[in-house]
Amino acid sequence: MDDIAMRAPLAVDGLSYAYGRKRALDHVSFSLAPARVTALLGPNGAGKTTLFSLVTGLFDSRTGRIRIAGHDLRRERSRALSDLGIVFQAQTLDLDLTVERNLRYFAALRGLSEREARKRIAALLEQVGLTEQRRHKVRSLSGGQRRRVEVARALLDRPGLLLLDEPSTGLDIATRRWLVDEVHRLAHEDGIAVLWATHLVDEVRAHDDLIVLEKGKVVARGEVERVVHDTRANDLNEAFTRLTSARAEEHL
Amino acid sequence: MSPTHAARAFTAIVTREFLRFVQQKERFFAALVRPLIWLVVFAAGFRATLGLSIIPPYQTYISYDVYVVPGLIGMIQIFNGMQSSLSMVYDREMGSMRVLLSTPLPRWFVLFSRMLAATFVSIVQIYAFVAIALALGTDVPLEGLLPMLPVLVLTGLTLSAIGMFLSSWIRQLENFAGIMNFVIFPMFFISSALYPLWRVKESSLWLFHACQWNPFTYIVEAIRFAMYGQVNAEALAVVAGTLAVFGAAAVAGYTPARGGPAAGRASSAR
């Protein structure tokens, strides 16, 4: 791992993971740049959720290394996770608590003072357009509104790295568009590094960075345009199909 | 983690557990009705048939309803400990456990806070139960109610730790409900909760030995002695030891799975 990667918002080096004998990740290495959106693109079962579980400290790996903002996740778990905001694939809010209570609960878990939490919650609910719903129970919100609350929750502690694991699953087109726009705005205006796991090519923008994961291996990495050019494809859709089907053929 | 951070996180976890408890009114009633049925219905029947000699901590003959109160307090705590663990399994299935475990808080701290929160909830239920028992005429020593408190914290933590350990090994909610029956009922019945051990010994020696190996027996005895302002050192030592063993096992159970060909289980957070 070089010096730049050591200081990167997220640096993953030689990471492998297996469920019993089934290998889910195979020597995965990459690093993210600050203020950039990186799409982690891969078909279902490519290992995206396993990678997220490792980066969020839910799993641990025998091999490889993860550094968040320069902190080794294994040795400095608490410091590493302090810089992380996460939106999980599954909805993870307490349905019987109000929007505000959910956020206050999480703010306290992150150690924010009551005053700071109130200020941040008001600002973030405004940002995600849910100020009026702050006293509503989460159960009464739509799927899109719940996702907005989760984005607000991930941003509460001003993270330097935002992880989103297939966050658009089950959302309508308007909310999906809002989410993609918002995440890019956060990267460009607030300087947050974003890792967005998806299997949907249309969620990736031309100027994003890209990591293509297939059967647990990184098969392409770089700016979207460069990956498209290197695979001699006309667009990302074609490049993605070539990259993933080439690997599938290798396994036949 | 600074002490201020720890205090804020702990308060949040306890508050959430209490909010859940308040919202689930049926849970409160079920927690009270269960021991009250034993106290009112079963104790009335047993009072006539079961003679109780003077055994420590009692200094006089007591009626069966007085004898059974510590066991029923233990019953409240065992159900509460399992209920809390059930909600851990639910949280894990619903994903909110992922949020908790991916915070910068140490895992042991998260688990200990959850256990203590569940214990506090059980203590509220216990004092409500004791108040009703007093109103029904059961002779509960009032002077023992305060000395009993630290023992209730210890016993509540121990039962929560056992539940937490079970929840770390159980993948699905449906399985946990089944396991509860195999844990709660044997623990409760094969103990000194309903009958004194000398009575059990008279009728069955193997059952007596089984009771002696059951940590719930010592939980009940620790509570029983504390209610009368006495200390049962042996019971407290066994309860503290059980807490240490199951607490450590629960933390180990919630330690992230490392995967790899040698890993038997896929993951604890899956």
UniProtKB/TrEMBL annotation, chain A:
<protein>
    <submittedName>
        <fullName>ABC-2 type transport system ATP-binding protein</fullName>
    </submittedName>
</protein>
<feature type="domain" description="ABC transporter">
    <location>
        <begin position="10"/>
        <end position="240"/>
    </location>
</feature>
<keyword id="KW-0813">Transport</keyword>
<dbReference type="GO" id="GO:0005524">
    <property type="term" value="F:ATP binding"/>
</dbReference>
<keyword id="KW-0067">ATP-binding</keyword>
<dbReference type="InterPro" id="IPR003593">
    <property type="entry name" value="AAA+_ATPase"/>
</dbReference>
<comment type="similarity">
    <text>Belongs to the ABC transporter superfamily.</text>
</comment>
<dbReference type="InterPro" id="IPR050763">
    <property type="entry name" value="ABC_transporter_ATP-binding"/>
</dbReference>
<dbReference type="Pfam" id="PF00005">
    <property type="entry name" value="ABC_tran"/>
</dbReference>
<dbReference type="InterPro" id="IPR017871">
    <property type="entry name" value="ABC_transporter-like_CS"/>
</dbReference>
<dbReference type="InterPro" id="IPR003439">
    <property type="entry name" value="ABC_transporter-like_ATP-bd"/>
</dbReference>
<dbReference type="InterPro" id="IPR022467">
    <property type="entry name" value="ABC_transprt_ATP-bd_su_PQQ"/>
</dbReference>
<keyword id="KW-0536">Nodulation</keyword>
<dbReference type="GO" id="GO:0016887">
    <property type="term" value="F:ATP hydrolysis activity"/>
</dbReference>
<dbReference type="InterPro" id="IPR027417">
    <property type="entry name" value="P-loop_NTPase"/>
</dbReference>
<keyword id="KW-0547">Nucleotide-binding</keyword>
Automatic annotation (TrEMBL), chain B:
<feature type="transmembrane region" description="Helical">
    <location>
        <begin position="67"/>
        <end position="90"/>
    </location>
</feature>
<protein>
    <recommendedName>
        <fullName>Transport permease protein</fullName>
    </recommendedName>
</protein>
<dbReference type="InterPro" id="IPR013525">
    <property type="entry name" value="ABC2_TM"/>
</dbReference>
<dbReference type="GO" id="GO:0140359">
    <property type="term" value="F:ABC-type transporter activity"/>
</dbReference>
<feature type="transmembrane region" description="Helical">
    <location>
        <begin position="235"/>
        <end position="255"/>
    </location>
</feature>
<feature type="domain" description="ABC transmembrane type-2">
    <location>
        <begin position="26"/>
        <end position="257"/>
    </location>
</feature>
<dbReference type="InterPro" id="IPR022403">
    <property type="entry name" value="Alc_ABC_transptr_permease"/>
</dbReference>
<keyword id="KW-1003">Cell membrane</keyword>
<keyword id="KW-1133">Transmembrane helix</keyword>
<dbReference type="GO" id="GO:0043190">
    <property type="term" value="C:ATP-binding cassette (ABC) transporter complex"/>
</dbReference>
<dbReference type="InterPro" id="IPR000412">
    <property type="entry name" value="ABC_2_transport"/>
</dbReference>
<comment type="similarity">
    <text>Belongs to the ABC-2 integral membrane protein family.</text>
</comment>
<feature type="transmembrane region" description="Helical">
    <location>
        <begin position="178"/>
        <end position="198"/>
    </location>
</feature>
<dbReference type="Pfam" id="PF01061">
    <property type="entry name" value="ABC2_membrane"/>
</dbReference>
<feature type="transmembrane region" description="Helical">
    <location>
        <begin position="111"/>
        <end position="136"/>
    </location>
</feature>
<feature type="transmembrane region" description="Helical">
    <location>
        <begin position="148"/>
        <end position="166"/>
    </location>
</feature>
<dbReference type="InterPro" id="IPR047817">
    <property type="entry name" value="ABC2_TM_bact-type"/>
</dbReference>
<feature type="transmembrane region" description="Helical">
    <location>
        <begin position="36"/>
        <end position="55"/>
    </location>
</feature>
<keyword id="KW-0813">Transport</keyword>
<keyword id="KW-0812">Transmembrane</keyword>
<keyword id="KW-0472">Membrane</keyword>
<dbReference type="InterPro" id="IPR051328">
    <property type="entry name" value="T7SS_ABC-Transporter"/>
</dbReference>
